[in-house]
């Protein structure tokens, strides 16, 4: 641990026994007294029951895996199926359509085939070609904050518009329709704040729009990702319309919401530590390493994520898992595993190596990982250059959080500088 490691402020965890059901099972997701910090259950489970049976709000039970080594194994082991969660009655934390063609819920060999076709547009080289445009957009957005003057809302000025604009421009969505995409995906990723009818309606509207957009690109090819995917072929293989639709939906929801939340969490984490902001103002070249530590430290995912179904009997962490059991690898907990990360509860902006699992692991490692790093790095770089030692303009307790979405963030985040 270096001198840049900063201990988090004291906080009180009030969630310990309140989440226990009558049958003794813990309810998941767990609550936390502070959205920036993991629930106390994670540390207790890592120490005492790293593979523990927990109950979801919908009544299903799953095996929650909380230690880094076991989480990595679940993420990489082909005997754990993502596709199986699309079957009727399967336990899930977010709505997943039966028969979904999303790469997010595919198993090999279909996953292998689809990833081979779409992976070519997410290479490091291709993403680096996007960097100048990301820098241009972030420069415009942060300059708008400066022009308005403090306090300025980070969410409205930068954290929301940057990722949704990047994703929409990549797909070839006209600028006038970006707000529609944002509204639809906001509803679709709601965990409990919207009715199932509202979620279904938003999904249907998004699908109709994407269907029309794909048809337009087929008639009039353009210089955008959808056109590339429409024409992508591997020998005689190509993407079906259904696969194109599913991939467009996945990109919008994951690329927009995840990045928006990570920008907000990163900024809040830094502003709790003025010395960290000051250091990065003076050493912006160290941002790439700092960004990986912010990703490790972040709780933006909220523990809501990639349930798998065991396809065979096996053992994890000494616990027997039976075929058909649902298993939830908890990445937020794994990223605080003391056996892997020295001073895991401290933020160390110079931490290397940093084997965090924020982008997953194995065949489902996030295709957009490099793009996400670029957007977060560029956003922080522009903020540090133009705002200097920024800080949150209101007490932390006054921030209102979007607790009912798959990715948590404040509704607004006013900054002063």
TrEMBL record:
Superkingdom per UniProt: Bacteria
Keywords on record: Heme, Iron, Metal-binding, Monooxygenase, Oxidoreductase
Source organism of the structure: Gandjariella thermophila
Gene3D superfamilies from the UniProt entry: Cytochrome P450 (1.10.630.10)
Lineage per the UniProt record: Bacteria, Bacillati, Actinomycetota, Actinomycetes, Pseudonocardiales
CDD domains per record: Cyp158A-like
Example GO molecular function: iron ion binding
Identification of the protein by name: Cytochrome P450
Family label: Belongs to the cytochrome P450 family.
């Amino acid at each position: 641990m270096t001198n840049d490691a900063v201990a988090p402020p004291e906080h009180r965890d009030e969630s310990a026994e309140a989440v226990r059901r009558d049958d003794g099972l813990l309810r998941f997701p767990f609550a936390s007294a502070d959205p920036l910090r993991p629930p106390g259950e994670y540390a207790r489970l890592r120490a005492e029951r790293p593979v523990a049976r927990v109950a979801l709000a919908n009544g299903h039970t799953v095996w929650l895996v909380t230690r880094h080594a076991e989480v990595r194994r679940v993420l990489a082991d082909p005997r754990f199926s993502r596709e199986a969660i699309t079957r009727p009655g399967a336990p899930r934390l977010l709505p997943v359509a039966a028969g979904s063609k999303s790469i997010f819920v595919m198993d090999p060999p279909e996953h292998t085939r689809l990833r081979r076709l779409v992976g070519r547009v997410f290479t490091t080289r291709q993403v680096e070609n996007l960097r100048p445009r990301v820098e241009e957009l972030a420069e415009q957005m942060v300059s708008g904050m400066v022009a308005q003057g403090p306090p300025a809302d980070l969410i409205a000025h930068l954290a929301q518009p940057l990722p949704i604009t990047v994703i929409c421009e990549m797909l070839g969505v006209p600028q006038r329709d970006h707000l529609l995409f944002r509204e639809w995906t906001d509803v679709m990723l709601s965990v409990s704040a919207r009715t199932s009818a509202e979620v279904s309606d938003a999904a249907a509207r998004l699908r109709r729009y994407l269907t029309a957009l794909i048809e337009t690109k087929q008639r009039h090819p353009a210089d955008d990702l959808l056109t590339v995917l429409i024409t992508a072929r591997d020998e005689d293989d190509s993407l079906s319309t259904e696969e194109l639709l599913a991939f467009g939906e996945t990109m919008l929801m994951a690329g927009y919401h995840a990045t928006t939340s990570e920008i907000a969490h990163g900024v809040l984490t830094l502003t709790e530590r003025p010395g960290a902001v000051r250091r990065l103002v003076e050493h912006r070249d160290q941002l790439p390493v700092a960004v990986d530590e912010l990703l490790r430290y972040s709780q933006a995912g909220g523990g809501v994520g990639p349930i798998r179904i065991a396809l065979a009997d096996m053992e994890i962490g000494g616990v027997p898992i039976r075929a058909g059991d649902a298993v939830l690898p908890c990445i937020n907990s794994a990223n605080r595993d003391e056996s892997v990360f020295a001073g895991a509860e401290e933020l160390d902006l110079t931490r290397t190596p940093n084997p965090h699992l924020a982008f997953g692991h194995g065949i489902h490692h996030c295709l957009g990982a490099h793009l996400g790093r670029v957007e977060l790095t560029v956003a922080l770089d522009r903020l540090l250059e133009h705002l200097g030692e920024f800080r949150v303009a209101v007490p932390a307790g006054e921030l209102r959080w979007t607790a009912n979405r798959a990715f948590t963030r404040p509704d607004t985040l006013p900054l002063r500088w």
